[in-house]
Amino acid sequence: MSEEIKDTYKTISQPSEEILFKEKNSKFFGYAFPVNSEEEVKECLEILKLKHSQARHFCYAYQIGTENMVYRVNDDGEPNNSAGMPIYGQIQSFDVTNILVVVVRFFGGVKLGVGGLISAYKTAAQMAFEVSDIIEKTIDVHFVISFDYKNMNKVMRIIKEKNLEIVSQKMELSCEIEIATRKKNADQIFDIFNSVYEIIIKKKDSL
Questions:
Q1: Non-local CB neighbours of 9 within 8 Å, separated by 6+ positions
Q2: Is the Cβ–Cβ distance between 116 and 21 less than 8 Å?
Q3: How much is the pLDDT for 206?
Q4: Where is the signal peptide (predicted)?
Q5: Among 93, 162, 163, 88, residue whose Cα is nearest residue 130
Q6: What domains sit in the chain, N to C, each tagged with a CATH number?
Q7: How many CA atoms lie within 13 A of 30 on its CB side?
Q8: Cβ(13)–Cβ(31) under 8 Å?
């Protein structure tokens, strides 16, 4: 029996509430954001830098993608691997992706040492996840179906039968509909449309 295709992933539904963790006069504000691109990561960081203009460190980790994951960690002036990696460890621990976790530190005058920093950044990241709404989403494959208007009923019947999501449509003499289906059903959906006379189906490259 072939191995079942994994076509779900976990992320958060919306930005988390702000959490505050204190350690020896230092304040650590933790945030989790759902993100789909590095551009969105930059926007979230800019918002936090405006909000906490007096803060000394904006340490973060993010992970984007479901199959080819991209991740990055940033210690932002803290000792190497004392901030970004502990935050990233929590992303792995909660098994989420398309996520950015930022911990903003206000230095309180007392040094925490590397061990203290690792513990504080890990705790702040964990607290941000604990107040987040973690949800499961499906990994979808998008197809573009091209056909003449006269074949509209055939196409719409299959879409309805298979309960496919219509992402966009262009209805003229020659029509185009973009549909989305769960990854594990993608081959079957492609074959159904591909076998219908005068209908062209192409996989849309994922972004």
A1: 66, 96, 97, 98, 136, 137, 139
A2: no
A3: 53
A4: none
A5: 93
A6: 8-136 (3.30.230.30), 139-203 (3.30.70.240)
A7: 26
A8: no
2-19 per-position pLDDT tens digit: 456 778 999 999 999 999
Residue 74 pairs with which residues in a beta bridge? 60
- Taking the C-alpha atoms of residue 176 and residue 78, their distance in angstroms, rounded to an integer, is 52
CB 179 within 8 A of CB 159: yes
Model-level pTM? 0.81
Structure tokens at 23: 């350690």
Phi, psi of 44 (to 5 degrees): -65, -40
CA of 122: how far to CAs of 29, 84, 93, in Å? 12, 9, 11
Token pair recorded at residue 59: 């340490």
The answer to whether the beta carbons of residues 198 and 146 sit under 8 Å apart is no
| Contact between 82 and 50 (Cβ < 8 Å) | no
What average pLDDT does the structure give for the chain?
92
Contacts of residue 32, defined as CB under 8 A and 6 or more positions apart, other chains included, come to: 12, 15, 16, 99, 100, 101, 125, 128, 129, 132
pLDDT bracket for residue 172 (50, 70, 90): confident
